Amino acid sequence: MDVGFGLIEAGSVRTKNTTHILVKNILDSFAAGIAYWLFGFALAFGKGNGFVGWTNWALAGLDDSKIAFAVYQIMFASTATTIVAGAVSERCEFIAYLIYSFILTGCIYPVVTHWGWAYDGWLFRGHTFYIDGQAVKVKYEDFGGSSMVHLVGGTSAFVATLFLGPRLGRFQKETGNVIYIKGHSVALCTIGIFVLLFGFMALNAGAQHHISHPGDASVISLAVFNTLVAASVGGFTSLFSHRFGLFGNSWSIHGVINGAFVSMVAICGGCNSMRPWSAAVVGFVASFLMKAFEYLLLKLRIDDPVNAVGIHFGGGTWGALSVALFKYDTGIVFSWNKHAGAILAWQLTGVLSIIAWTGTLSILLFGSLRLMRIFRVSEDVEKKGLDITRHGQHAYPAEAYGYSHLHIMTVGDQGKVSPIDQGYVNKIFVTYEGHELTETKASTIRTIHSVPSIVEMESLDTELSGIQKEHKAKQLKPLLWMNDTIEKR
């Protein structure tokens, strides 16, 4: 799951932030491994009351036979944090990420899972409704985590993006136009959805927690098949809606990716208790719900680079409520009676409670980070990208391209010009005070000298404002030295 999230998020950001998003996806698993081990498991599955557990801190006293269950739950916790990482990408300070990842996986998320998945949780224990003079016990159902995992992550992501603000240039203040900032790699996103498809099927299969009991094989096979059906229908629904005028007029690959993604999120809730045709309906509705949230966020001027809110908040909410509609054979679609209505009421109670808990603590968490001024990077850092300024490593170093026919000059401290041996056509790789800056197009070659090996560029389309201000008086003119003859382009 983390590999799939990492690939999609990396492909959805610009090259200058790729390393940053990959580091965060690696650390999601490690942060969950520490925080959930120390605190999370105890709060979620330790013995306690209906609200929270308080035993088995750092897994102390836990029977060895339950360690595998703890590992499985750690991966759920990691997923909740990864959702937020994508939503705040390209402008979130790294130290803020470290803080919220530990708090979300160790404190906020575990309490929710105690409610709905622990045997003494108040949602799991359910509520007794008196229908026609008879007592009917109804409990909350979320088999694979539509609300327990994805709604938690989606709610936290919404609050985080609200406090963080949009990326520079995302919305034009003068015209009100939305500027689409494209990710750098469709290939990574596409590979990511393949990995996630396998991951979701395995995750939903594992939600049974055992395979040796009578009936386990039937439940697991149904959960896996329903996951595949929902993803397939959601992907095609989004594809055709983008092609035939509803959301565009092209066969959009991003439409396929996001449509399948949100459908897998939604089907998690009832993949073990629905017929395949119901899973198809869940996927169909989820793809439209995702787009509705996407447009709503744009209207509100909220920037979500990976549509995490639409996919996980929208898909998670729908997934939990769809259980009450399509559960075989007590859902509203199959049994139009008061019992089915009671199931819907309890599912809705759980969804609203999860949103309220996660939203309130997320406001306190991200609001505090903003007040401490450690939540968002500076404008200068955002322009340069977080890869070099925070990690000292480009995901795609210019010098690694290795075209032998082109030497590239670098502008160093105090305006010193020196050559490097590798580069790539029509670009200049620049270093300044030890930091690699934005890759710069040498797009305005004004004068070609009579000497065929020297090209002097009198002006450059560049973002190197710092260098321009400091060396403006020197009228710095970088030189591009070429081994081969100059070819007009």
TrEMBL record:
One Pfam family, short name: Ammonium_transp
Parts of the chain that traverse the membrane: 26-47, 67-88, 95-117, 147-165, 186-207, 219-239, 251-270, 276-297, 309-328, 340-366
Membrane topology listed for this record: Multi-pass membrane protein
Subcellular location: Membrane
GO cellular component, one term: plasma membrane
Keywords: Ammonia transport, Membrane, Transmembrane, Transmembrane helix, Transport
Gene Ontology BP annotations: ammonium homeostasis
Main subcellular location: membrane
Origin superkingdom: Eukaryota
Gene Ontology MF term list: ammonium channel activity
Family stated for the protein in its record: Belongs to the ammonia transporter channel (TC 1.A.11.2) family.
Full protein name: Ammonium transporter 1 isoform X2
Species for this entry: Biomphalaria glabrata (Bloodfluke planorb)
